[in-house]
Amino acid sequence: MAKNTSLFKVEGTLDNVTFYKSADGHFVRTKGGVSKSRILNDPAFVRTRENGAEFGRSAGAGKMLRMASGTMVFKAKDAKLSSRLVQVMSKIKNLDTVSVRGERNAAEGLLTAEGQQVLRGFDFNNRAPLLSVLFAPFSVDNSTGAFVIADFTPKEQLNYPPGATHFSMRSSFVVLDFASGVRDVTYSTPVNLPITMATATVTLTPSGIPQGNGTQIHFLLIEFFQEVNGAQYSLKDGAYNVLNILDVV
């Protein structure tokens, strides 16, 4: 794979050369390699087929997680979120000690403490990791989903972007069955506060306990706003917003 540095940024295929654009720029690659039919049928490529099947399951698990985050993901994500989720789910899949090679999956991996730890703390927006934005101790009640920050002083304990005057926090409580894709989600009411030296306790409690079987996941969304003439405006298309997986059970 080569990078296209010419003045003309084209996309498409010419003879055996493909020009394409990604988040990292414009690239050029040539066609070639083994045919799809041979990969699908030749016994020599059994390991390749197994790897491909497991990759597909990891990609599917990442998509399930994005969907389970609901509309919050549209407020705090980065350009490489999908690929980063595939990497995380692949690590979790490797912790599946039950399934045979080619059938390992994230659903089994998440039944282990190690698999849950891999997902715990994942940031959907790598430009704004939770630990670089929120500098206050907090607690999460796994039975109710309640999120609490006691004695919180926003101006001292938030790394807020220039121009921000307010912030909001919202949490969600998800039960997601990675084997079937079935999920149930409940949300807290958003808490919106000015960025001042005023100290208060912030409590986010989801509207109920989600039903079903699967992995329990707790999300936290932090958004920043600028108030102008009594109206609040989101800053820079969510570049500074946080969406984090607080806990996985």
Describe the structure.
- This protein has about 250 residues and is an alpha+beta fold.
- The chain has 7 helices and 13 strands.
- It has helices at about 35-40, 45-70, 80-95, 105-110, 115-120, 130-135, 155, and strands spanning about 1-5, 10-15, 15-20, 25-30, 140, 145-150, 165-175, 185, 190-195, 200-205, 215-230, 230-235, 240-249.
- The strands form 3 sheets. Strands 7, 8, 9, 11, 12 and 13 form a 6-stranded antiparallel sheet that branches. Strands 1-4-3-2 form a 4-stranded antiparallel sheet, with no helix packed on it.
- A hairpin with a 2-residue loop joins β2 (about 10-15) and β3.
- α2 packs across α3 (about 80-95) and α3 packs antiparallel against α5.
- The model has no long low-confidence stretch (mean pLDDT about 90).
Which helices and strands appear, and what pairs or packs with what?
Elements lengths: L1 E2 L8 E3 L2 E6 L2 E6 L5 H6 L4 H23 L12 H13 L12 H4 L3 H7 L10 H4 L5 E2 L6 E6 L1 H4 L8 E11 L6 E5 L3 E4 L5 E5 L10 E14 L2 E4 L7 E7 L1
Antiparallel strand pairs: 1-4, 2-3, 3-4, 5-6, 6-10, 7-8, 7-9, 7-11, 11-12, 11-13
Helix pairs in contact: 2-3, 3-5
